[in-house]
Design a protein that fits this description.
- By secondary structure, this protein is α+β, with helices and mostly antiparallel strands.
- The protein has 2 domains: about 45 residues; about 140 residues, no CATH class.
- The protein has 3 helices and 8 strands; from the N terminus they run H-E-E-E-E-E-E-H-E-H-E.
- The strands form 3 sheets. It has a 4-stranded antiparallel β-sheet.
- The chain is globular and about 50 Å long.
């Protein structure tokens, strides 16, 4: 009788041990799966694989220098490959080689000038925004700005021109050439650039 009780107890113990082992195996298998997924993600990052951004968000200091005005950019990419926005600033006068291609303003030649912020456009870049000047009421929080706005005094105001919204190529040219020495000391150009392809 004692032998039978001992045998039953051992059987229960073996079942419990085996059950624990099975549960642990399933848990370890899940952990290994998670680990493999994490490792795969890390390898993709190491390889430099990029994902398409849904929107670009960027802040740009408007010319002239020390104006204190900041523009917010929020736009969707136009390239069908992973890309980023590049801000280029040139002192005046400046040169730029862009041409209309497929409804976009595409850079055709690298600028021989030196930008003031170290960035430079490259062939294939798409011009997305440029600083441009138009007549308008003064902006800002200062007393002179408020007084000028109240008096209705018009002056040259800087804005960002959305190149994609241009209805004609001449509008792009007019926006670029509105950046003159009489109005500003620099021009701001925002390009969309394709990221290097992953190996």
């Amino acid at each position: 009788m004692r032998f039978l009780y001992l045998l039953i107890s051992l059987s229960i113990l073996i079942i419990q041990i085996n059950g624990f082992a099975v549960n642990n195996y399933a848990m370890i298998n899940d952990i290994c799966t998670i680990r493999d997924r994490m490792r795969s993600t890390q390898l993709n990052l190491i390889k430099g694989e990029q994902t398409m951004p849904s929107r670009f968000e960027m802040e740009v200091d408007l010319p002239p220098k020390n104006s204190g005005l900041v523009a917010q950019i929020s736009c969707e990419p136009v390239m069908n490959v992973p890309s980023r926005l590049v801000e280029v600033r040139y002192k005046l006068p400046f040169g730029l080689d862009v041409a209309p291609q497929g409804g976009l303003a595409v850079c055709t030649k690298e600028n021989s000038g030196v930008s003031s912020n170290g960035n430079q456009e490259k062939p294939g870049d798409v011009l997305r925004y440029t600083s441009y000047f138009s007549m308008g009421l003064p902006r800002g929080d200062g007393l002179l700005s408020q007084g000028g706005a109240f008096a209705g005094a018009l002056s040259w105001q800087c804005n960002l021109f959305d190149v994609l919204k241009a209805k004609a190529w001449q509008q792009v040219i007019d926006a670029l050439t509105s950046n003159t020495k009489e109005r500003t000391d620099e021009v701001v150009l925002i390009f969309e650039r394709a990221l290097p392809a992953s190996n």
